[in-house]
Amino acid sequence: MQSAEKHTLFEDAQGFVFGTAMCAFAIVMLRDLGLITGQTAGLSLLISYLLSAPFGWVFFAVNLPFYWFGYRRMGLKFVLKTFACVALLSVFSELFPHLVSFERLDPAFGAIMLGFFQGAGLMAIFRHGGSLGGIGILALYLQDATKFRAGYVQLAFDAALFAVAAFLLPLDQVAWSLLGAVVLNLVIAINHRRDRYIAM
InterPro entries, alphabetically (predicted)? Predict the structure, then answer.
């Protein structure tokens, strides 16, 4: 198989702007509906609800401890790309609510669409060698250190996060949040295939 051509700096930049913008729009929908999602973004949303704090600042702060794991596991280039993506999402998620609002957003429709938006955004970020940091980085680090599968670490974290959310949020909001998380994970599972898509 012919090796894939590397992305240019400009291509990486547009991929990160596109990906973080899609994820930030999903965050606007999540906050409008009072929902959460999985991983670090979900934890940051829950904290922002409890403290009435801006999501962007919380998300940026929550990710800070994970860069060391990213550096140890995947090197400086990955950490710099991830830092850029986290910073962009933090800024966009605070900017976008001033540019768009929803007069009516059905919870079922919103949960499905935000799952699609997040999935598309993350796919773009992954294809250009970045991430949104957090639990995914820690999971890969623990997999190397303990041989415990990264997917199980992420699943356990999300299960704990949604269990806590069930005590803090109305159960219907938790149910719609789960729908959005399922849609997101299906998009990633079906489309993020290194055997089919090898460009990095």
Answer: UPF0750_membrane, YitT
Residues 84, 130 contacting (CB under 8 angstroms): yes
Query: How many of the other CB atoms lie within 10 Å of CB of 93?
Result: 30
Q: Which tens digit of pLDDT belongs to each residue from 92-142?
A: 999 999 999 898 999 999 999 999 999 899 888 888 888 888 887 887 777
Cα(75)–Cα(67) distance, rounded to whole angstroms? 10
CA atoms of 66 and 82, how far apart (whole Å): 10
Give the residue ranges of DSSP H helices in the chain.
9-33, 39-51, 55-63, 67-95, 107-127, 135-146, 150-168, 171-191
Query: Per-domain residue ranges for the chain?
Result: 9-191
Is there a contact between 42 and 161 (Cβ–Cβ < 8 Å)?
yes
Report whether pLDDT(199) > 50. no
Number of other residues whose CB lies within 10 A of the CB of residue 188: 16
